[in-house]
Amino acid sequence: MAIRNIEKHIRLSEKEDDILRRKAEKLNVSVCEYIRRMAVNGNILKYDILSLHDDLIGFRMVCNELNAIAKKINTHRKISENDISALNKQLDFLESYTEKFCIPIPEIVGEGENP
Predict the structure, then answer these.
(1) Mean of the per-residue pLDDT values for the chain?
(2) Is-above-0.85 flag for pTM?
(3) Of the candidates 57, 52, 62, 51, which has an alpha carbon nearest to the alpha carbon of residue 91?
């Protein structure tokens, strides 16, 4: 067993304490163990919502282009090589975004240093 002789004190609201206790109970660990594991192994993800603005504009452009292609295909009941090429281009664009935003979900009790 590790020797733990350094104390840290935190202040929580009643709601925060309740959330903390429920999360620890859900994992069947003590509150201290939960806090320790989160401090050592946990991740805090921060997203810059403002940076998504340009991405949303890109998605709107893709949607407009896909709708235009679909309308053309439905109107003329045929699809050209140019339409297929445009569809593939838009799908590649969308795929690049799914890779960009695909972030592994951190485990509460996961890999990392063990205290």
Answers:
(1) 79
(2) no
(3) 62
